[in-house]
Design goal:
With 216 residues, the chain is of the alpha/beta class. The protein contains seven helices and eight strands. The chain starts with a strand and ends in a 15-residue tail after the last helix.
């Protein structure tokens, strides 16, 4: 099970082999096809918030991996504040999924959560092995991040009902790539058991390997 960091008053796991990523869910959706995306993103957000609740019960750390929207002077709190303004299309999703004080965040400049960010360093600090990925867009930023995670030998889990793209066809195509090429587990979120994922991520027995038996 995850170990708590006493320096953080026990609020955040210091080490956890399983981590939940929320990719680009703090999003104003003020772009071409943003309205089209939101029709799929809002139902997705309701499922993610339940997955996040269960992750917290299992003491799984949550990392918001979010685009900086080209605002190089912004920090994450300012991005959240911007997306909660009345006139932005993505506000309903952000209201559902706004981060808590105990959640981690990483701002990214491009599609992949790993490109020119501190995500590698944070995951190394947490000693993560399994990444549960959610968010938008499934066929772009989630896919790119999953690809980079796979190349780093992480076990990738992408609950199929917790990612959204502009169309159902694009979303299904992305899931197919992640399943076949990246060996991702794409079970729906109601089948994700964080306790089981933690057990699966535990190292094999540390007992001394058996000496091979040779025929006399």
């Amino acid at each position: 099970m995850p170990e708590n960091n006493s320096d953080l008053h026990g609020f955040v796991p210091d080490k956890s082999p399983v981590v939940l990523l929320l990719i680009d869910v703090i999003n104003d959706a003020e772009f071409d096809e943003g309205e089209q995306l939101m029709q799929f993103a809002l139902p997705m957000a309701q499922r993610i918030v339940e997955l996040k609740r269960r992750a917290k019960v299992a003491n799984i750390p949550i990392i918001y991996v979010n685009d900086n929207f080209g605002r190089w002077q912004s920090d994450f709190s300012r991005v959240v504040e911007h997306c909660l303004q009345n006139d932005v299309r993505g506000r309903p999703m952000v209201e559902i999924l706004k981060p808590g004080d105990e959640d981690y965040f990483v701002l990214k400049p491009k599609h992949s959560g790993f490109f020119s960010t501190t995500l590698d360093t944070l995951l190394d600090y947490l000693q993560a092995e399994t990444l549960v990925m959610t968010g938008v867009a499934g066929n772009i930023c989630v896919l790119f991040t999953a690809n980079d995670a796979y190349m780093r030998d992480f076990h990738v889990v992408v609950p199929r009902d917790c990612i959204a793209s502009n169309t159902l066809e694009e979303n299904e195509h992305a899931l197919e790539i992640m399943e076949k090429v990246l060996k991702a587990d794409t079970r729906p979120s109601n089948q994700i058991d964080f306790v089981e994922l933690l057990k699966d991520a535990e190292p094999e027995s540390k007992s001394t390997p058996k000496t091979p038996e040779f025929a006399n």
